[in-house]
Here is the input.
Amino acid sequence: MKTSWNDQLLKEITEQVLNELSKHGLLEKRNPPYVPVSVSARHIHLQENHVEYLFGEGYRLTKLRDISQPGQYACKEQVTILGPRGKIERVRVLGPTRKQTQVEISATDARKLGVNPPVRHSGDLEGSSPITIIGPKGTLNLEEGCIIADRHIHMTPKDAEAYGVEDKQKVSVEVEGPKGGIMREVTIRVDKRYKLDMHIDTDDANAFQLKGNEWLKIIP
Here is the structure.
């Protein structure tokens, strides 16, 4: 009898919580066409030999914390990036290592550095901006590798089916609030390894007054 009473009480509490969420429009925003958003600050991905060049022979990156996508993590290591007009210190390294070193910055960062990186998706580095990376043990002068990351949404194939979109499709995303508006040219990226999440840089976040963890509406 005691277990039955507890079960009934739990059911009533759950129904009340769901009703309140629904009343305030919060429950619906956890389903299509809404997606969660994360703000991606400037960061760098390093190829294996560049890790050793910047931090010393035999050096291995040290995991600090997991980030939104499975298997990806922020490292304890930080570097300085240098352009013709200035430098930015304490740029976080992300792991694991990549096939090619990639520096992702915002347009605001680019103006400070004096570089002109293209807007690209991750890994599309041919003809991208040159950049200098300074570590505790060495300095790298890259002929290409610096980009402004495109706005994009990570999805699994199951997510893509539920949202009615496909890999590499461009969509628009609506932002509500006092500085609401529409973000266009958002790339859908589909892979079974992904976790549902939209990534924007700090310039977009500031323009729309987003802090991360909000839910935004996809407009195909």
